[in-house]
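Renewal narrative, Specific Aim 1. Our central claim is that a sequence can be written position by position from structural information alone. The example that follows is taken directly from our test logs and has not been curated for this report. It begins with the structure tokens describing the chain, in the order in which they were read.
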């Protein structure tokens, strides 16, 4: 579980780093006068445009960050489901389908035995007596 959280934090940090690069490039455009050199435009520092651009990128980053967090939380929720085959009752464990007994033995070091619950016993006894 700790490793999963570290992976998610890494995803969020990479996302934040990417948006930081976008903001840095936006400011570099104004500081290094790139439009002047590339297109031959007269140089007029437009700091309001840079601030507006930064604000828009920060707003988009906040929205993407919130959406990514929600998706990661949903993924975390879904990863904790135990998939069991509807027909044979095998369990999907580490990409491999194994029996319930083998799963419990490998995952929890718990030995299993078979029995019958009281309700199933009643149902089976009724079938035998009919």
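The sequence written for that structure reads:
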């Amino acid at each position: 579980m700790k490793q999963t959280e570290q992976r998610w934090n890494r995803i969020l940090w990479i996302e934040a780093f990417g948006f930081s690069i976008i903001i840095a490039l936006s400011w570099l455009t104004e500081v290094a006068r790139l439009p002047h050199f590339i297109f031959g435009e007269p140089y007029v520092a437009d700091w309001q445009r840079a601030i507006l651009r930064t604000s828009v990128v920060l707003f988009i980053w906040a929205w993407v960050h919130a959406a990514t967090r929600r998706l990661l939380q949903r993924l975390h929720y879904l990863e904790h489901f135990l998939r069991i085959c509807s027909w044979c009752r095998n369990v999907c464990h580490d990409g491999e389908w194994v029996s319930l007994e083998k799963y419990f033995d490998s995952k929890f070091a718990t030995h299993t035995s078979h029995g019958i619950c009281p309700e199933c016993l009643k149902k089976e006894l009724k079938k035998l007596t009919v």
